[in-house]
Specification:
- The structure holds 2 protein chains of 2 kinds.
- By secondary structure, chain A is mainly alpha-helical.
- Chain A has a domain at about 1-80.
- Chain A is built from 5 helices and no strands.
- The N and C termini of chain A lie far apart (about 75 Å).
- The relative contact order of chain A is 0.07.
- Chain B has one domain (about 15-190): Four Helix Bundle (Hemerythrin (Met), subunit A) (Up-down Bundle), CATH 1.20.120.80.
- Chain B starts with 16 loop residues before the first helix and ends with a helix.
- Chain B is an all-alpha fold.
- Chain B is elongated, with a radius of gyration of 19 Å.
- In chain B, about 40% of the residues are buried.
- The chains are: A mainly alpha, B mainly alpha.
């Protein structure tokens, strides 16, 4: 019964309002990284040198993505009024994903450790960076 | 004697079986897409040269497609709203509108990929483009599958049949939308 009452609050205007918020957030996530270098410069000018462009990019791109996903899940998928079982199910799957990341990322993100070295990855990074550098110099000359 | 399978009428969790099944599909999809995106993030952070590769994706194509999918999600939830109020015809119309969004998404992607392939950014170019085509391609397959299922459900809804399924396809569609919400900054914004 309570669920039905809560559901009734989710009228059409509510959905349109959420959609509007999502579009505003989309605009911010596109503009954020574009404006980040200017914001960093302006912040440095007023003595707030700790504000870095990459922080603004991370916040506007990924912070907003998480919030957008929450808005869609809570309001469009009705996760906020769904039985808790579903939230636990989804949280378990997300935890498995994080576990996978935590377990494998050191081997992928680092190319050497105490008793090992990923020679192929190191060689590829070296080759690609040199190639990009020579391409950019070539572009400058032409 | 009932002709409906027992699974459609019983519910141990208090959640209708069809809906529970869709949530489990979503749960398994989290592991599929989550694994793929987590692998991408690891490689992106471990390979500084990918920053240059990523700079060649066009955020405007990604942005337009994000707008299209968010709008199609609104259409899907309005279909659910209509179905909940017993208006099958209206629900069917909103579902067809959602499919139209999916079609636009695929068309934009086709144009985008054509341009990228013409510039030599193919799936064999390097690790970044392999992830790019795999992740976006798998997502596009989900969009196509969702559209096909949605049209079948819209056909039933138009006749006032199986209206509860409108919510089920909506849950799936919103999940596809959420996956794109994360793909967009990963592939188009973080350069």
């Amino acid at each position: 019964m309570a669920e039905h009452e809560e559901h009734a609050e989710h009228g059409q205007s509510h959905y349109v309002r959420i959609w509007g918020i999502l579009l505003v957030l989309l605009a911010v996530s596109i503009l954020g990284p574009i404006l980040a270098p200017h914001i960093e410069e302006a912040a440095a000018g007023v003595g707030a040198a700790f504000v870095k462009g990459w922080m603004i990019t991370i916040m506007t791109a990924f912070g907003i993505a998480i919030y957008k996903a929450y808005l869609v899940a809570a309001n469009f998928m009705h996760l906020n009024i769904e039985k808790r079982y579903i939230t636990y199910l989804l949280a378990t799957m997300l935890t498995l994903m994080l576990l996978f990341f935590a377990g494998t990322s050191p081997d992928i993100m680092k190319h050497e450790g105490q008793n090992w070295e990923n020679v192929a990855a190191e060689a590829e990074v070296d080759r690609a960076l040199k190639s990009q550098e020579s391409d950019s110099h070539g572009g400058e000359h032409h | 004697m009932s002709t409906r399978p027992i699974a459609t009428t019983r519910s141990a969790t208090g959640i209708p079986t069809g809906k529970l099944a869709v949530w489990w599909v979503v749960g398994s999809e989290i592991v599929i897409f989550g694994g793929l995106l987590a692998s991408y993030v690891m490689h992106r952070l471990g390979h500084p040269e990918w920053a240059e590769y990523a700079s060649h994706t066009n955020p405007w194509f990604g942005g337009i497609n994000t707008f299209v999918l968010l709008t199609s999600s609104l259409s899907a939830v309005l279909a659910h709203y209509a179905a909940e109020h017993g208006d099958g015809k209206k629900a069917a119309k909103w579902l067809v509108g959602t499919c139209f969004g999916g079609l636009i998404f695929i068309c934009v992607k086709a144009v985008e990929w054509t341009i990228e392939i013409q510039h030599g950014y193919t799936i064999t170019a390097n690790g970044f483009w392999q992830f790019y085509y795999t992740a976006a391609g798998l997502h596009a397959l989900h969009v196509i599958a969702g559209c096909v299922i949605m049209l079948i459900i819209a056909n039933d809804a138009r006749k006032g049949r199986e209206l509860h399924r409108v919510e089920l396809i909506g849950i799936y569609w919103h999940f596809v939308d959420i996956v794109w919400i994360f793909l967009f900054p990963l592939l188009y914004i973080a350069k």
